[in-house]
Every structure is written in structure tokens, then in C-alpha cells.
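Example record

The entry below shows one chain as it appears in the dataset: sequence first, then C-alpha cells.
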Amino acid sequence: MAAREASPGPLRYRLWCGGLHKDITEDEIRDAVGQIAEVKAVILRSSSKDTFCFIQLTNQKDMDKAIEMLDQSTGLGERVCA
């Protein structure tokens, strides 16, 4: 079993986003969300059914802004769930 990476910050400020484009990069996600919130880290993952990521933010205000921007949006995927 592979070793886990150290946590980039508190779980309460970590946002899960699914439904992303299959060829999206961590930098594209960071650039998009970074326009409205301070992004500490992006961890991109994929499975046979979904491409998703975890976005580590720094505070609740940024979490709220990122959810509002991403949920049901089409900029980073056909219909992103946040």
C-alpha cells in the first residue's frame, strides 16, 4: 500500500469537486478557483466513472465562495458537483 501524503490543511476547509473534465490539470483548477479564493493545494484524482479533486482552502469564507462558484457550473466539467 502506498504511503499517504501529508495533509495540506484542516479537513473543514477541504472541498470535494466531482464531474470534472477528464483531461483537466491541477493548475487549471488552481487558476480558476484562485480567482476568488486562496487555494492552498489541489489534489486531482480519477476513476473509471469520474474525475474529481480535493481543493484545500484557508477559511470558511473562501469555502463558501468556491462552492457558490463551482457547484453545478460547467467551466471545469460538464456539470461540476461541489
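Notes for this example: The chain has two helices and three strands. The radius of gyration is 12 Å.
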